[in-house]
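Students often ask why we bother encoding 3D structure as a string. The short answer is that it lets us treat folding as translation between two languages. Here is a chain of 190 residues written in the first language.
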Amino acid sequence: MTIHPITILGEPVLHRRAAEVQAFDDDLRLLIADMHETVDAANGVGLAAPQIGVGLRIYVYNFANDDGVPDRGVLVNPTLLLSKVPGTDPDPEEEVEGCLSVPGDHFPLKRAEFARVSGFDGFGQPVQFEATGWFARVMQHEYDHLDGKLYVDRLIDRWARKAKRSRKEHGWGVPGLTWLPGTDPDPFGH
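And here it is in the second language, the structure alphabet:
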């Protein structure tokens, strides 16, 4: 297995819709294993293939939940059905997200509290479950990556301005920027 560099905001693969997986083969399963290895090294809770430069509709997760779903898994060609996102402002203490492709930053974001998730595992077998609370947030966050969206693209104006300033200060928003988990300093201080 290989730990891959994580692409940073501005890499084109992060900003376009990923392609459907066509073949459930050994290459796909190796990619999934590499993604698990990479998210573990990054101390993350999820990782989408575009975050390692691969424009395919795959994400892995490692998140303890109360929904009876295994803590560690993969979704290939997933779909999500969401509850309504509340129209209130996000709580700056309780609803803060971060992203491995926006390393070190955290901003409040309102998300749906429920997601019905379906897709396939690495062998093409159907996977279906319901996610609530923070587990639903993880599912939405990773799914957004497959549609070319980052959580900072969804921030309300107040936080979007702060994210834009941070992006400018870090020099993000251009192709070619990455960080390597396990080698580069952990941007989240784990």
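Translate back mentally: Residues 108 and 158 are 10 Å apart (CA to CA). Keep this in mind for the problem set.
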